[in-house]
Design the sequence.
C-alpha cells in the first residue's frame, strides 16, 4: 500500500514534469513565447516544477522504510529530467538575456532541486540495500 502511494506520487510528478517540459519547448519555438498552457513562466515553473519536486519528496518520505526500488528509479528519472531541462535551457542561451543574474539564480536553484532528487534516489538505494542485507542476516523463522 505504501509503495503504491509513493509510486503514484512519483509517477504523477513525472507526468507534471513532462507536461512542463513540453509546454516550455512549445513556448520557446513560438514567436509570442507562450506554450500550450495559459500560464507565464513563473506560474508554470511553480505549479508544475515545484509541485513535481514536492510530490517527489513526499513519495520518498512515504516509502523510505519500505523496500521499493521503483521509488529510487523514479527519483533518479525526475531529478535527471529537471537537470536535463535546465541544461537544455542553458544551451538555448537563456543566460544571454537582459537579466542574466536572475536567470542564473533560477537555473542554479532548479538544478539544485534536481540534484536533491537524484540524491534522494541514491539515498533510497542505500536504504534498500541495508534493508535487504538486514533481512538476510536474520535467523530463519520456524
Sequence:
Amino acid at each position: 500500500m505504501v509503495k503504491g502511494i509513493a509510486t503514484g506520487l512519483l509517477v504523477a510528478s513525472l507526468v507534471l514534469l513532462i507536461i512542463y517540459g513540453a509546454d516550455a519547448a512549445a513556448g520557446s519555438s513560438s514567436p509570442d513565447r507562450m506554450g500550450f498552457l495559459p500560464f507565464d513562466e513563473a506560474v508554470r515553473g511553480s505549479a508544475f516544477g515545484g509541485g513535481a519536486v514536492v510530490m517527489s519528496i513526499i513519495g520518498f518520505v512515504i516509502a523510505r522504510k519500505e523496500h521499493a526500488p521503483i521509488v529510487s528509479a523514479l527519483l533518479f528519472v525526475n531529478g535527471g529530467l529537471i537537470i536535463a531541462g535546465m541544461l537544455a535551457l542553458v544551451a538555448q542561451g537563456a543566460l544571454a538575456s537582459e537579466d542574466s543574474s536572475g536567470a542564473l539564480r533560477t537555473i542554479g536553484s532548479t538544478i539544485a532541486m534536481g540534484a536533491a532528487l537524484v540524491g534522494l534516489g541514491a539515498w533510497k538505494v542505500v536504504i534498500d540495500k541495508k534493508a535487504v542485507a538486514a533481512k538476510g542476516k536474520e535467523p530463519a523463522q520456524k
